[in-house]
Amino acid sequence: QDNGFEQFIINYCNEKLQQIFILMTLKEEQEEYVREGIQWTPVEFFDNTIICNLIENNTSGILAMLDEECLRPGVVNEDTFLTKLNQLFASHKHYESRETQNARHIMDTSLAPRSFRIRHYAGKVTYNVTGFIEKNNDLLFRDLSQAMWASRHSLLRSLFPEGDPQKVSLKLPPTAGFQFKSSVAMLMKNLYSKNPNYIRCIKPNDTKSAMVFTPELVLAQIRYLGLLENVRVRRAGYAFRQLYEPFLQRYKMLSPRTWPHWAGSDREGAEVLLADLAYPDEELAFGHTKVFIRSPRTLFDLERRRQERVVQLVILIQKTFRGWRCRTQYQLMRKSQILISAWFR
């Protein structure tokens, strides 16, 4: 119920993770249809970039304002920090405080005086600014770092490299918010270079009991995790897509016109193959480089037909080999019988 600086930076990290989830699953999903020239109706989804910018903008974000207050000479306290936020984000639709609510003639007694509220993707969260500046400074006195570096213990020396007198910097040490922001940026860079697969864990009940399912709790988590938009995009789009060449190589055995060899282009082969299988037109779409199949049911039917055809081909190979082996053995026996009969006669 009482959220401070620690919960603020944790929620900032969650917001960045949700942003990469949106970009890599929802936005790229829809952009792929545009790249492939597939006609479909785009699905609206909430892009939380505006919330990330509210927190991390280098010049006018909440973290930047917090660092500015920590470095400002004179009397510095959380009240001046909150006043600056109220002036800067007076019209921001994802920020509110007691002062901004009064300016908008909104009466909300749930918002305390020394607090501000952010409308995150997962809902509204109220933060108490008490302790923000002290926790953000995260000052480690220079003489303490030097004392630790001068220790004979190798681990302590490695933990305080800034204590080396030859590396003493007159610059102020980085704030906790700045360090956390840099760590999140490195994490995002690492994730963007990968091909992620998501596993979303849903808590079915608050009592950690088996076979207990609370629909309201599950629905809230599904909404907060952005899974509803993801399902809508998937249902509006196509469940399966694959490049023409591997698709044709896997399923060309299902059509006599493409099996065993197809002389044309891979796209033409895929079109001929699926035309022979007589699937409805609305189930299929042919992009510039990929074939798209709308429902999993069609894909399962393709796999079922392929398995049946593989069995038929295996039987054909076995039948041909057994016939060759028996024919060869018979011819050898016949040749031997003639030779024995001739010598006997």
Automatic annotation (TrEMBL):
<keyword id="KW-0009">Actin-binding</keyword>
<dbReference type="GO" id="GO:0007605">
    <property type="term" value="P:sensory perception of sound"/>
</dbReference>
<dbReference type="GO" id="GO:0007015">
    <property type="term" value="P:actin filament organization"/>
</dbReference>
<dbReference type="GO" id="GO:0005903">
    <property type="term" value="C:brush border"/>
</dbReference>
<dbReference type="GO" id="GO:0051015">
    <property type="term" value="F:actin filament binding"/>
</dbReference>
<dbReference type="GO" id="GO:0006897">
    <property type="term" value="P:endocytosis"/>
</dbReference>
<dbReference type="GO" id="GO:0005524">
    <property type="term" value="F:ATP binding"/>
</dbReference>
<keyword id="KW-0518">Myosin</keyword>
<dbReference type="Pfam" id="PF00063">
    <property type="entry name" value="Myosin_head"/>
</dbReference>
<dbReference type="InterPro" id="IPR001609">
    <property type="entry name" value="Myosin_head_motor_dom-like"/>
</dbReference>
<dbReference type="GO" id="GO:0016459">
    <property type="term" value="C:myosin complex"/>
</dbReference>
<keyword id="KW-0112">Calmodulin-binding</keyword>
<keyword id="KW-0547">Nucleotide-binding</keyword>
<keyword id="KW-0677">Repeat</keyword>
<dbReference type="GO" id="GO:0030048">
    <property type="term" value="P:actin filament-based movement"/>
</dbReference>
<feature type="region of interest" description="Actin-binding">
    <location>
        <begin position="184"/>
        <end position="206"/>
    </location>
</feature>
<dbReference type="InterPro" id="IPR036961">
    <property type="entry name" value="Kinesin_motor_dom_sf"/>
</dbReference>
<feature type="domain" description="Myosin motor">
    <location>
        <begin position="1"/>
        <end position="307"/>
    </location>
</feature>
<keyword id="KW-0505">Motor protein</keyword>
<dbReference type="GO" id="GO:0000146">
    <property type="term" value="F:microfilament motor activity"/>
</dbReference>
<dbReference type="GO" id="GO:0005886">
    <property type="term" value="C:plasma membrane"/>
</dbReference>
<dbReference type="InterPro" id="IPR027417">
    <property type="entry name" value="P-loop_NTPase"/>
</dbReference>
<dbReference type="GO" id="GO:0005516">
    <property type="term" value="F:calmodulin binding"/>
</dbReference>
<comment type="similarity">
    <text>Belongs to the TRAFAC class myosin-kinesin ATPase superfamily. Myosin family.</text>
</comment>
<dbReference type="GO" id="GO:0005902">
    <property type="term" value="C:microvillus"/>
</dbReference>
<dbReference type="GO" id="GO:0005737">
    <property type="term" value="C:cytoplasm"/>
</dbReference>
<protein>
    <submittedName>
        <fullName>MYO1A protein</fullName>
    </submittedName>
</protein>
<keyword id="KW-0067">ATP-binding</keyword>
